[in-house]
């Protein structure tokens, strides 16, 4: 009989962290490709003579596709895990990018954006579950590392657009579809690890799904978290979708410089996500949510009145503070509903996309009728809804 030696805790932890890093890189690949859509808005707005409403509809098509499907996929995979569904997300996103590169009509742009949204819907629930399985109990750290990969991907998208797509035209989007191939290869390897974990855990007792609070309080807390997510993502959509247009119109900067300013904001957002997770593990998710949602209010209110220099500074500060909340929100929700990792990931990642998409469409209409500067003045009041954080319950200590 062969004796199998258990790995030391140090090796096991290293293996887990290594896997989370791989999943985070896959998230980066995924979100680089997704962010290319909004990053090339100035280009396709000119190429297809689009108005802001049509730009908003493109964003909504992408995000609503992901929003509607992610919770469904999360619920299904909670019951029937599908490790090998992960590489399919790269296939869908690859197809969407190829369509964007070769689109000959606005309709094809919509189809391409919906396929990119489908890739997001497939990727996030299962990838988030893999990160949690590999966390070793450090859920905030794992979730933030996973998410920071996506944020860095979103930040790199505008840079790739500025230095590759804008100088070479819309067809050069196809060059970047090669990223999907790397994602496919990496996710195939992650899927094998995940499938092996499923086989190892097949005969183990099911995870405890006892709610930490009465059902009514859990549902109320989830509703508050959803509302906070909505507020955060509508505001962030106003920056990520229209920030380039705002600085171009108000400060007369070039398209390329506007993309660099957007990169500053998105990079700061990535840093905020990474900081939020470990702080949440140490101080509690509720504390991070409080600090993030309420701490951003004064800076958001100052943004519409700032000059170019201070607009850049405020964008960085807002990106760091506001983005630190999301990993804490996801972890807090997962603790509220144990054993439903896929459903929660799908709900919050999906709802984040959906809320941002609806917000982008509405803001596009306002930008067409009242101007982009009015939109940023209006959005500056959204973080005030963060006062609802006071209604979040404290979880029993064993639930974090």
From TrEMBL:
Q: List cellular component terms (GO).
A: plasma membrane
Task: Please name the Pfam families in this protein's record.
Answer: MFS_1
Question: Do you know which InterPro entries this protein is assigned to?
Answer: MFS (IPR011701), MFS_dom (IPR020846), MFS_trans_sf (IPR036259)
Transmembrane domains' residue ranges: 16-43, 55-77, 97-123, 144-166, 172-195, 216-238, 258-277, 284-302, 308-332, 344-362, 374-392
Signal peptide segment: none
Major facilitator superfamily (MFS) profile domain: which residues?
A: 19-398
Q: Which GO terms describe its molecular function?
A: transmembrane transporter activity
Write out the entry's keywords from A to Z. Membrane, Transmembrane, Transmembrane helix
Entry's PROSITE patterns?
MFS
- Which PANTHER family does the annotation name? FOSMIDOMYCIN RESISTANCE PROTEIN (PTHR43129)
Q: What is this protein called?
A: FSR family fosmidomycin resistance protein-like MFS transporter
Q: Which organism is it from?
A: Pseudochrobactrum asaccharolyticum
